[in-house]
Every structure is written in structure tokens, then in C-alpha cells.
Amino acid sequence: MAEEPTPVQPEIDEASESVPGWRPGRRAVLRGSLLVGAGAVGGGVIGGFAEPAIASSGSPNNTEPFYGTHQSGILTDTQRQTVLAAFDLTSDNRADLVALLKAWTRLGAELAQGQSVTVPIHNPVGGSGDAYADATGGSTTDDSLEAYGLDASRLTLTVGFGRSMFVGADGGSRFGLGGQLPAALLDLPHFSGDELVAGDSGGDLFLQACADDPQVAFHAARSIARIAPDVATLRWTQLGFSPDNQGGTPRNLMGFKDGTVNSNVHPPSDPDRTLWAGAEGPRWMSGGSYAVYRRIRITLEHWDRIAPGLQEQVIGRQKLNGAPLGGGTEFSPLNLEQRSAQGTPVIPVDAHVRMAAPESNNGAVIIRRGFSYNNGTTPFIERWPPWRQALEYDAGLLFLGYQKDPRTAFVPVFGKMAESDALNQFTTHTASAVFAIPPGASGPGDWIGRTLLG
Amino acid sequence: MAEEPTPVQPEIDEASESVPGWRPGRRAVLRGSLLVGAGAVGGGVIGGFAEPAIASSGSPNNTEPFYGTHQSGILTDTQRQTVLAAFDLTSDNRADLVALLKAWTRLGAELAQGQSVTVPIHNPVGGSGDAYADATGGSTTDDSLEAYGLDASRLTLTVGFGRSMFVGADGGSRFGLGGQLPAALLDLPHFSGDELVAGDSGGDLFLQACADDPQVAFHAARSIARIAPDVATLRWTQLGFSPDNQGGTPRNLMGFKDGTVNSNVHPPSDPDRTLWAGAEGPRWMSGGSYAVYRRIRITLEHWDRIAPGLQEQVIGRQKLNGAPLGGGTEFSPLNLEQRSAQGTPVIPVDAHVRMAAPESNNGAVIIRRGFSYNNGTTPFIERWPPWRQALEYDAGLLFLGYQKDPRTAFVPVFGKMAESDALNQFTTHTASAVFAIPPGASGPGDWIGRTLLG
User: Fold this and answer.
1) In what helix (H) or strand (E) does residue B436 lie, and over which residues does it extend?
2) How far apart are CA B398 and CA B15, in angstroms?
3) How far apart are CA A452 and CA A284, in angstroms?
4) What Rg value do the Cα atoms of chain A yield, rounded?
5) ipTM topping 0.90
6) Closest to B160 in 3D by CA, of B289, B311, B300
7) Which residues share a beta bridge with B240?
8) Distance from the CA of B254 to the CA of which of A438, B9, B218, B315 falls in 20 to 30 A?
């Protein structure tokens, strides 16, 4: 066992105080107004230590808009990296939740501009907050800086509310919100094949941070999590990645172009009908959406032993060019009626694309943001010949599906797929969540959640 | 419990055979000669199914050289993503090991050109190999295609040999290699603070796959692993990332520029003295190197509560610009003698940079490739006030240090740091391995490991 190192003690604050220029300089800057565009790293050197002179952590370029009728990160072109995080609220105080959401919104707007953190990190409600940080001379106000010098990398932050934020496990109202629970924010039924890990599922609050740079995405999620250690704690996090989006729909780890029909790369022509909540539900959700998250483990070792021609029968598309079986291009419509000379359907009856197609689901559309994930290797028992026990990838797909109402989209569509999609023999759903994604903040001063809690 | 889906049965091969054009076309191509530069996606459509006409998965651009005196991936500018993998050999047959390394080399050279896999995946030794794949009409020869259409993304593949490939747990020789074991390929001693997870440590064979695209790196590691399921199996995998390398040394998750002195970004002026093995060891390692891998968990939640000025005392550098305490720029030499007006060292006696500096270690240099990692959140008990129990990040640094001889570099340098580096109170080493990195393959026909096994 290692010798325990000496913990940092509050009196070491003196060492910090011996660093002139740093704290007053940084705080003066960080608590001041935003200085977007003051891009050059510089500042005077006082007593040998740099005095930072800017709050921006990069250029104002390469940004996605944060404010808007809808939250960003839904129809935004999929970025290369995502960090998903769910939080459980540890406070019962509605004012804490309001302060947290105001702080998240303000911070999110700054991060999306590629700026350093200027929002007081701890205790958004006010008061002294974190005695240890105060005693060490520390302040969780300070940016952790791992993204300093990088640009915004198209960062988007999308915030959601879980059903458990509205009603407790006993069915009682939380934060006085029980009466505001949308019927669309349902508990998903158990689907055939579900093997869900509770600790990786659900949550009171949800954050989807997406960016082209992995460290920018992580920095954003970390900064959001740091804001309120006494109000909300992390429940789970999950990283995902997507290949460079050259030339259309990215390929998933099965090697197929994934989500050509139901994809944010090819947005629906009528989003008010399929994506955005409207007058059919509570007013506070108007302009919002509902996200269904599923972590789908794929048995890549099994898949890799199947002939490509058979893989195409399972998916219903050609592997190389993504065209539906039967011909055409990636974006050709599915011809679900076409039959071979022998009379069998060219797109098999249990093919994945047939199961997922709007034509097979009363027109239901789910706007997908798919990311690959790889959580390393875990022990696994194969359920195919030669039935080996081995360490295999815990890897696959992070499915993020956005829709107007899961009751008429994800639930019936996936319910049918869970029963008979040919793909099921290669996949296992291991995590799941549903979140209400409220409308966006309209501009500085507005905040995500105002329509519910303001 | 889910209803068990119907397993794919060998007779489904008929479905595959009903897909004209795919298998003959693809195999004819994949088993043919390399077609570098035949970049356009195309090919005829036979019976409604695409006939692939190329083996290249992208442009020949954006490549790093594969062949050379030394393996790539050591002095190569650090890419954005890494997939590390260790394998245990399941065969005792030297011919299997030779065939595996020949196949890995051939495949590695193709992947580094951005090509699809053309190497027979299973059973490199010959014979029918995989009965299940054969019976389903499958062939693990076929590229899994998730990187199809992407360029090489500066992919490098670096192969290493663990001590356990030479000697078994009982001390006996494996593969007849016991007498070839380099003294430098040591078992690391236990260091103060080690909390190593055996399943994430060690291994007979090592692969470092680095690329700017996450899916290209994963595809490479997956393809390498698929080559020989009957010869070597995965022991562990670990993903890492590095921010866009704009403007010099990347920052780690502590927010500091990391490895300015010991970094492949700033290679040593005399690599034959510090990096490449020479006449001092076995001839087969001449031109090789030794890699030490350490997965270092960082208590980010603790670090974030410490004042930046104190963080700078721990590291010995300024956080914003990376200059040593005492002033200058990032690349200014450390002034380890400088004292303040009060007589105390400006760079504290236990500061990380002082501990790691060649001046403090008889000139020892370690060429670092550092990546950040985030394996999600795990339960954690804080050892600092207020001593919470919480879900916290299993995140930190993947340290990959290359050197001529760990006995005169990593072992003494880190041995001292493990005792007294101020950084230790924020870090825990959770995985560890040492690998001999043999010299590179000189060109087509040569193979990594030939100097040892040829």
C-alpha cells in the first residue's frame, strides 16, 4: 500500500498568495464582461508570473449558435465527438434548480463561443459555498483550462429533463412540478432484448455536449458538472465518436452507412410535425423535443464472421455505397414492394431498414444523432459458434433519437423492431433514458427551463 | 429475459449466394494487388448489387510512413486519437507467432496507406481456419468497412513485445525466446501509490494505433485483432484523445501544457543516446526502443478546488502560457537554482517539473506521447475535505514513454517522483506495462519481429 501523501491543507493558501498577479488578475478578468475576439495570449508579467489579460479561450470562429427557438445539438450537423452526462438532483429546493439552470445556460452560451468559464462554479444560489475551496485560496470559478487555446470546435450543449425530476419514485411531485409532467415523457416499456444497466440509465437532468474536438467536449461537460456540486451530482457519463463526415452519412462500427432515412444529416421537411413539440402538450414544451437515448452493444466479433452479402440482407442496404437492396443510390427511396424473380422480397421482411422505415411505421420519423462508442473490453460469452468465452469489445452505437412524441415514434417503431429486426441477433441494449428537451433560450438573460420554472 | 433470437445458421449461406457480384467481385479485388491511388468509388452494378472495384478506402494523402529503420508512432507528431491494445498469445507454436507478425506487418502497411484490409484475417498459418465463418459463407478476410471512404488520418501502428512473450510465469522460455530476453525489458518494481488493475496491465503483444480520426484508429486495432483469433486474444484495450495540436504542446486534463521537456513534440537532439536501443543490448533490438505505459487517474474534482496559483506550485509551470515558474516562455530552460527574495526556490523542491527534469535525473530523457482518457464515472471516496463519496471521473492521462532503457530512465525518474512529487496527491497509477518495441520493417517483404524470430 502506498504511503498516503500529505493532503493539501488550507494553510497552503499562503503559497498561493505568494503568487502575485495571478488571482486578482484572473478574477478581475473572469468576472468582468465578455471579451470575445480578444484572441491574443498575452498580458504583463508581474513578479515573474503571467497576468492573463483575456477571457476568450480561442477564436470566435468555428461556433454553432447557442440561442434560438430550439436548442442546438439536435439538427446541428453531427460533430466528431460527444460526451453525454446525466445528473441526479441532490437538493429539494426549487430555487436551487432555477439557479442551476440559469447558471448552466449562461455558462453554455460562453462555452459555445469558445470562451473560458466566467460563471461562478460552485453554489449558484449564493453564499460562501465551498469551504474547502475558499480555505485553500481555491475557487472553482476558475476555468480548468484544458481547452484553453482551442477554438469552439462547433460545440453544442443540449439540456434535458428526466421524468424523475417531476415525480419521485413514490409518485409524489418534486419541485412542485408533478402537474407539469408531459404525458410524452414516459417510462419506456421493457423491450425484448433489453439488458439495461440501471447506473448507466435515466437521470433527473441530461447534458449532451458535442464538439469536433474531444477535449473541448470533455471540458464543456466537466465545467457544467462543476457548477453545482451541492445541487446535482453526476449519475453517468458516456463518450462517443463519429468519423469525419466526408460525403454524407457516417458509417457505424458495422461498416454500414447508418440512419440515412432517420438522420439529422437529412432533416425532415416538416419538423413541426415530427420533431418539435407543439400545442398538443404542455405549453412549456412548445418548441422543445423528446430525446430517447439507447446504448446498443454490438457483437462485432460475431458480425465480422458473417459474409458481407448476408450482412446486407440483415441491414437491407448495400454495404459499400449505402443504396437500398434493389439498387439506386444511398438516397434512393426504399422499394419495399420489389420482389426477386423467385418471388421473395428484395429487401427481406426482417431487414433493419424495412423495420425502421417511416412507410412501415405510419410515417413516424425519429431524428437520429448516432455516435460509435468503445468502452474497452469485457468478459463475454458468445452465443454463436464456436461459443467461446473471451474478452470482447463493449462497443457499438449510442443512439440519440429526437422526436415530437416518443409514444407515436420510438415506442411503436422500436417495439416492433425489438420483436423481429434481423439485426437483433447482433445487438443488446445496455442503457436507456428519455428526456424532455425544453425549447432554447432566446438570448442573453433568457434561460433553458424558464418556460417550466420561471 | 429477452427471447433468444434465432442464431444465424450455416445454411443461411444460401442467402449470401443469392447476392450476385458481391463476393466474387470483392474477393477478386481484395486478393489482388494493391491499388493505391485508385480513389474513386465506383464499379458496375450487377443484378442490382454494387460490384466494388477498388481496394483503397480513401485518398493516398494524409499518410505517415509505415516502413523505416524505426517503427512509426514514436516520433510521429501526436495524433488526436489512440486505441491501445494488448494481446495474450494462445498458441505455443513459434510458427503461429511468426505468421501473425508477418500478417500484422502486411496489414499495418496497408492500413497506413488508407487501404481496406486485404490480408486474410483468420488463421494466418494456413488451412481452413474458421469453420463457422466458412459455413456461413462468411470470411473474416473482408474489411469491416467502418473506415471506408475516410483517408489514412495519419494512422500509425506500433507493435511491441511483452516480457511474458519470452518467459512464462514459471520462468521457462516461451517460443524458444528465453535467451533473447533483453535485460531492459524488466518487470517494473512496485512504486509508491500504485493501485494497478492486473486485467488492464501487461500483455504478450502490444499495439498502439494512433490517428486523427477516432474511427480510423478503432478500425485499425479491430482489424489487427481480427487477424488471428486462434493465435492471440485481446487482453485489454484503452482509448485516449489529445486536443488539436495548435500552437505547440497540448494541454492535459489538469489544464497545463504537458511534457514540454520530455515530449515527442520536441524530440531529443541525440535520440541514439536516449531513445533508440543500440549495441548495448541484444542485436535484434538495435534500432528499437522500450515503451512504458501507465494509466494515471487524476482526481479532477480535487484539482479543480485548488487555486490556480497553488496548481502552478505543484506543477512548476505557469498555467496559461506553460513557462517555468520564474518567467520566460514555454520553451525556456528550467532555472532550478533560482530563489525568491525570501530565499525559497522559485520552482518548489517537490514541483513536478523539477522531479521530471533531465537535470534532476542524470540527463535521463523519456520521449512522451501523452493522451487524455475518460472511462466514464465510477464510485469514489474522496480523500480530501469534505471527504464525500460520489461518482467521479475515471479520467486522466495515458502516459506512453519511449526510451533506450527503462533501467536508466523511467525506473529511476519515476521512482523518485513516486516518493515526493507534489503531483502525487492528485494521481493514482491504475494500469502499467513495459514493451520492447522492435525496429521497423524496412520495406515490403520485411516484417516487424524478423530480427528476433526470422
Assistant:
1) strand B427-437
2) 46
3) 5
4) 24
5) no
6) B289
7) B82
8) B218
Residue to substitute from B90, B295, B320, interface A, most A β-carbons within 10 A: B320
Residues 118..137 of A with a Cβ closer than 8 Å to B: which? 121, 130-133, 136-137
Kindly report the CA angle at B337 between B333 and B339, in degrees rounded to 5? 115
- Structure-block grid coordinates of residue A263: 438522420
Any A CB within 8 A of B341 CB? no
Written as one letter, the residue type at B109 is A
> Is B254 within 8 Å of chain A by CB?
yes
Smallest CA-to-CA distance from A68 within A452, A440, A437, A450 is with: A440
Q: What is the mean pLDDT of chain A?
A: 80
A353 within a domain of the structure (yes/no): no
Radius of gyration of chain B (CA): 24
Q: Note whether residue B47 is domain-resident.
A: yes
User: Where in the sequence is the domain holding A32, given as residue range(s)?
Assistant: 19-56
B251:A132 CB<8 A: no
For residue B127, report the phi and psi dihedrals to the nearest 5 degrees: 95, 180
Q: Does B214 touch chain A (CB under 8 A)?
A: yes
A192 CB neighbours in chain B (<8 A) are 2-3
Q: Are the beta carbons of A391 and A98 closer than 8 angstroms? A: no
Contacts of B241 in chain A (CB under 8 A): 81, 214-215
B289 CB neighbour count, 10 Å cutoff: 28
- Counting beta carbons within 10 angstroms of the beta carbon of residue B343, is it exposed (0 to 12), middle (13 to 18) or buried (19 or more)? exposed
Per-residue pLDDT of A20-65, as tens digits, reads 222 222 222 222 222 222 222 222 222 222 223 333 344 456 999 9
| CA dihedral for A55, A57, A58, A61, sign (positive or negative) | negative
Q: Find, in chain A, the residue whose alpha carbon is nearest to that of B392.
A: A234
Q: Is the omega angle on the peptide bond into residue A386 within 30 degrees of 0, that is, cis?
A: yes
Q: Domain count of chain B?
A: 1
* DSSP-assigned letter for residue B164: G
* In contact, A314 and A349? CB cutoff 8 Å: no
Contact with chain A for residue B14, Cβ under 8 A: no
CB B422 within 8 A of CB B292: no
Q: Measured between alpha carbons, how far is residue A203 from residues A282, A431, A433 in Å? A: 21, 12, 8
Q: How far is A165 from B288, CA to CA, in rounded Å?
A: 57
Q: Does B239 touch chain A (CB under 8 A)?
A: yes
DSSP string, B92-146: --HHHHHHHHHHHHHHHHHHHTTBPP-S--S-TT-SS--HHHHHTT--TTS---T
Which range has the top average pLDDT, A18-27, A248-257, B320-329, B395-404?
B395-404
Of B147, B320, B390, the CB nearest to A52: B320
B377 neighbourhood in chain A, CB within 8 Å: 234-237
Can you name the residues that pair with B446 across neighbouring β-strands?
B444
Q: What would the pLDDT profile of B396-430 be if each residue is shown by its tens digit?
A: 999 999 999 999 999 999 999 999 899 999 999 99
Whether B31 is in a domain gets the answer yes
Report residue B151 as a C-alpha cell.
Answer: 483517408
Transcribe B53-93 into DSSP letters: ---BSS-S-S-----SSS-SSSSSPP-SEEEEEEEEE----
Q: Which residue type, as a one-letter code, is found at position A56?
A: S
The answer to whether the Cβ–Cβ distance between B244 and A13 falls below 8 Å is no
Identify the CA nearest to B399 among candidates B294, B298, B243, B267.
Answer: B294
Contact A22 B321 (CB under 8 A): no
Segments in A136-265 forming alpha helices (H)? 214-226
Q: How far apart (Å, rounded) are the C-alpha atoms in residues A166 and A172?
A: 8
Residue with grid cell 435515466, as numbered in its chain: A202
Interface of A with B in 79-98 (CB under 8 A): 80-81, 83
**Which residues on chain B are in Cβ contact (under 8 Å) with A224?**
none
Residue B43 lies in a domain: yes
